Amino acid sequence: RKKVKRGTTNKYGMTRGYSPYPYRTVPTKEQCEEVHRILVETHGAVMQPTAAPPPSITVAGCGEVPAVLDALCRTLISGNTLMANADKAVEKLAEVYGILKDGVGAGSINWNAVWLAPKEKLVNTIRAAGCPDRKAGHIKATLDMVHEEQKARALAHIAGEPVPGAQNEDDGQKALEVKKAVEDYLSLEHVRAMTVDEALAEFVRYPGIGVKTAACVALFTLRFPCFAVDTHVHKFCKWLGWVPEKANDVDTFNHGEHMVPDHLKYALHQLFIRHGQDCFKCRKNTKPGSDGWNEAPDCPLEHLLDRSK
DNA sequence: CATTTCCGGCTCTACGCGTG
DNA sequence: CACGCGTAGAGCCGGAAATG
């Protein structure tokens, strides 16, 4: 079958509707359900929220905030670090730049203030999350891009010209985009009118936003079924033989998007992460023979796993 | 035809703070 | 003092395309 091209229009080779491993029949729906059932027995049920969770100044994690731009920036900050570090950075952001009071972004960090202030200030604010210089650079560049693009979109809306990804927007949504642009109110809410793949493609154009970050925002904020692949999800997909041993994370994402039933994508993402952190035998840098292996509790997935992969 | 250049696909590593 | 976390970019390889 056609191999996916990586190019300027598709940096990571994301696909939609087919897998990079078209010959693969796994995971079947039944296999996904079995793994899901076992993990639920072990860690408890996980349910995808149907409404946006209330905004929080202490939760950086994986895009679980109502405003899309806020989610994207918070998720970027939460990468390459532990959740606790990311939370500290987000608290500091709220303290330094303030929180929006109303609108869709109520509870959101005031990214307009971040956009207007110098990069150095941001570097110092998010230091606790690690890689502060690089992340601040990415965020500042992203905010600049968002500003430029929403201005361009607004002008096109006013001129009655077609706007990419806005095919499904009604007049009210278009008017709102124009209003935000006129007021220089940075927003990415327009991606809500897009399809999953359009939204993902939109996100990964921004610097510092890769497939994982984009998929997390799609999954948690847009609440699309989306098989976000982090280090734990990737590991289990290999150990379960769902993808080849040598699969990279993007191919695992592409294959998972294709094979994992929509209704299990959210739960499996959450449960794989929890299991990868909680199960002694499945933790990073633990392998058969390492300290405490024999005394450690059995893994409920043991019979399905090949950890040598 | 021989040589060079290009490019997809892959691996490896910097990045950095906080934790154990 | 090793390690987690994910992206970007460098480096490598081999086949394809371009060049002489």
Automatic annotation (TrEMBL):
<dbReference type="InterPro" id="IPR023170">
    <property type="entry name" value="HhH_base_excis_C"/>
</dbReference>
<feature type="domain" description="HhH-GPD">
    <location>
        <begin position="77"/>
        <end position="278"/>
    </location>
</feature>
<dbReference type="GO" id="GO:0006285">
    <property type="term" value="P:base-excision repair, AP site formation"/>
</dbReference>
<dbReference type="InterPro" id="IPR003265">
    <property type="entry name" value="HhH-GPD_domain"/>
</dbReference>
<dbReference type="GO" id="GO:0000702">
    <property type="term" value="F:oxidized base lesion DNA N-glycosylase activity"/>
</dbReference>
<protein>
    <submittedName>
        <fullName>DNA glycosylase</fullName>
    </submittedName>
</protein>
<dbReference type="Pfam" id="PF00730">
    <property type="entry name" value="HhH-GPD"/>
</dbReference>
<dbReference type="InterPro" id="IPR011257">
    <property type="entry name" value="DNA_glycosylase"/>
</dbReference>
